[in-house]
Amino acid sequence: MRLFYFILITICFASCSISKNATKGEMAFAKNSVVAHRGAWKQNNFPENSIASLKHAIKLNCTGSEFDVRMTADDSLIVNHDPHYNGLLIEKTNYSDLIKFKLSNGEKLPTLREYIKAGIENNQSTSLVCEIKPSLISKERGQIIATKVVRLTEKLKAQHMVAYISFDYDMLKKIMELSPNTTTQYLEGNKSPDQLKADGITGADYHFSAFKNHPEWIESAKKNNITLNAWTVNEAADMDWLIANRFDFITTNEPELLFERIKKSPTVSGWKLSWSDEFNYKGLPDSTKWNYDVGGHGWGNNELQYYTEKDTLNAIVKGGYLNIIARKQIKENKQYTSARILTKNKADFKYGKIEVQAKLPAGRGTWPAIWMLGKNIDNAGWPLCGEIDIMEHVGYNKDSIFGTIHTESYNHIKGTQKMKGIFIDKPYDSFHVFSIEWTPEKIDFMMDGVVYNHIVNEHLTTNEWPFDQPFYLIMNLAIGGGWGGKKGIDETVFPAVMQIDYVRVYKKEN
């Protein structure tokens, strides 16, 4: 499965045996990351692993189409995922008995020979990703199956079209022994990229949860020239995360959806992920990424909450989300507690695309915010340091969110802040993406990709544009205050929760 990267993602030809073949004029696969799982079957209700689903994957221009290989009792190599076919155990049934049963579209159960021949006919885009299933009989039989598959591929002169994947590590080693330049990827998800590299395996093709549990494997794989693939990815949110992290390939039952997500990804516009937190862990926010602002002094807005530090009652990661929780709880003469977290040591960002996917808390008196301050605030003070409010929402105005800049010349003390709002549908039931695109010339405020506030650099002084310096990110849930508490507080809404799915910071590629 080591193929070319999808568009805007490049990879050195020498790191990939299939790419090497392509440079010799043998094959150049489609430049996308889409691998159809058991062919592109779902949308048109084709049988999985059928020649019809393979042909449709080729028609869609997928960079790969995955299929499964097993061997019958009479040593016929056939294409089928499950160990049983129509109630018959494949490894203990002759092929002549299996083909008495048709696939749901009338096709007969395909042999590997028929499948490969169909896959190489009029195909100039799609790799054949061959998963060899481990034998249920013995490891030795698995070695025999692997040998027969490789030899048949060679006989059909399809080596340049076929990549091999398996849950059986020894099977992959056998394939490498038979054909040292072949592309192999391991499926089990229990070996690091360093281990794969040491054993000559060219790719990590793991369930996407393995990479979420071991995010360090992503960078390690890239450093080791180990191809990254994830299976079986059918939800848009998971696709977006993998695209953002520049996975070489994404195996899916929903290739049409994946093509759509690629088109919408920031990477298509030349953005490269530089910092993120996906909150794929449990407990307190990651201490390598986040610090806390602490206290109950009103924070310049007469706010009523006390911000706590490292308290899971107010900031906790669970279920894949960061939960910032405001509670009706007395602390140091304040009636409410909450959390305000900021990037570690005021980790700074200068220009870029900042995205936060969040679901807002309901209730009059709540004031959630996702925002940025100039890192020079301790020296310059506010508002000379500058402030970028990526998203603010006040609970009494439940159908709107706002994006704003504050500077020495433009700020809410003077009533000159540059603010605009946008209608938000179901802020308390659905997640929305709040973001900015920030360049030396402008800041665009967006919700779900729609620009609703466009601030241009007037090229005057830092009083108007202090945004050519590093800023740090803050997320908090305030209660009351000059704006949030303008119409009082509904005491029945507590605990109020802002949920954050992810934070992603992109930089423009050079």
Number of helices: 12
Beta-strand content bin: 25-35%
- The rounded distance between the terminal residues' Cα atoms is 28 Å
Radius of gyration, in angstroms, nearest whole number? 27 Å
Mean pLDDT: 94
Biggest sheet, in brief? 10 strands, mixed
CATH class category label of the largest domain: Alpha Beta
Provide the helix percentage: 10-25%
Count the E strands.
Answer: 28
* Form type: elongated
The residue ranges in which pLDDT falls below 50 over 5 or more consecutive positions are: 1-25
Per CATH, what is the topology of the largest domain? TIM Barrel
SSE class: alpha/beta
For this structure, what is the CATH homologous superfamily of the largest domain? Phosphatidylinositol (PI) phosphodiesterase
CATH architecture label of the largest domain: Alpha-Beta Barrel
Summed up, the domain count is: 2
